[in-house]
Amino acid sequence: MKILHFRKGNQLVLGVQTDEGIIDVDQASAEYNQGLPGTIDALIASGEEGFENLQRLVDQVISRKDGHLIISQDTIEFGPILKAAFDYETELVIVIGKTAKNVAEEEALDYVYGYSAGNDLSARDLQFRTGQWLLGKTCDGFAPVVTVLE
Fold first, then answer.
1. Residue 97 CB: number of other CB atoms within 10 A?
2. Cβ distance 108 to 96 under 8 Å?
3. Does residue 82 lie within any of the structural domains?
4. What are the φ and ψ backbone dihedral angles of 53, each rounded to 5 degrees?
5. Is residue 18 part of a domain?
6. Are 116 and 90 in contact, with CB atoms under 8 Å apart?
7. How much is the pLDDT for 83?
8. Are residues 103 and 42 part of one domain?
9. Closest CA to 23 of 42, 44, 41, 8
10. Highest mean pLDDT among 18-27, 59-68, 98-107, 116-125
11. What pLDDT digit, counting tens, does each position of 45-89 carry?
């Protein structure tokens, strides 16, 4: 299941990417009286039960062919395009789904919720103003993560 956030008006809302399009989880959850989490963070916090409930909702929407709950990917709003030039590196983002400490190597993947891709952005002009590179790495909106969690 591919879980994502997309912009709906002034808010980021939870969605699930399917072959038919993107399911608006908030809208579908309200229509089916499911009370599911509205963000990826809340979904992760809800644990396996939240994920299973989300899967059941997706199955319901697809099996009932509730087209009004499925949004075409062509109509999804993306954030503003930056006009400045930045250096960047692509990073693998590993999302940890439960609290972990001193986990044995053979159990490590039990704590992984999913994977995504991210960008490590750098504003080199800010970075080189001082001897500390942190200024060029910590601007608002830096370290964007791809909106799909798989």
1. 16
2. no
3. no
4. -65, -40
5. yes
6. no
7. 38
8. no
9. 8
10. 98-107
11. 888 888 899 999 999 998 888 778 888 777 776 444 343 457 778
